[in-house]
Amino acid sequence: MHGLIDSMIIREFDNEALNQKKDSAILTIGNRRIAFTTDSYVVNPIFFAGGDIGSLAVYGTVNDLSVCGARPLYLSLGLIIEEGLDRTILERVIKSAGSAAKRSGIDIVTGDTKVVERGGCDKLFVNTSGIGEVYYERLSIDEIRPGDAVLVSGPIGEHAISVLSAREGMEFKTTVKSDSAPLNKLIRKILSASRNVKVMRDPTRGGVATTLNEIVSSRPFGISLEEEAIPVTGGVRQACELLGFDPLYLACEGRVIIIAARKDAAKILRRSATIRTAGREYHRRDDRRLQRQGMP
Q1: Which among 25, 51, 57, 89 could bridge 126 via Cys, Cβ 3.0 to 4.6 Å?
Q2: Residue 1: which of 200, 152, 217, 198 has the closest Cα?
């Protein structure tokens, strides 16, 4: 997907905002800096432990704005409904989206509905777009330096395993619930604790490993992860051992990766106790020196 976006979409629609390749486009309207994002949700099944397609769509858009240093303000909600969908299912999804919006402190102000013939979609597809006001301007991959800390805000892989277990009817010793949740309040807390946060991403498609690979794909350095420091719950670990998955590549929907100056890592950890150190950024030419110091 990363290659498809670069080779086809960005090449065709080439412009300054799109070329930023952030989770949200950062735009200037008058004298205000605005973040704008859109996303589509086709999750199957539409209900799973810890969430559903309605709350997932709201939180996903809120998080795409938040990791770009923006305060989410307004959302749109588009529904593509399969003919014959049970009305109670649609009501449940809409109520869930409304509750998620209230929890996130944003308003759903516009939207659209379309009905397609039976088989034209899988029950219900949702599209959301969001607008937010940028309050933190210093987020950029160009700011990353050798020695920076890599932090993750909680256990990884829970969303992917929750959806998979619901779809395939799998049961594990402990119920794995999706981590789907809004990140805006947590991120404001992080950014108020440190002015040395360089990059934030929510590790959705492809999980933590893919997200970090995309960050360094065009950089002259890599990222070394301390695997034992990355939190993975027992249920996710059991599922990965059974199915042969790597939790680093499983989608999360309520976690944020933060790259910040190492001197501020402890400060960020104190401000938000759920954040764990996941690794540190380093320069390839320093590999031998780092290995001598015992760094993996």
Answers
A1: 57
A2: 217
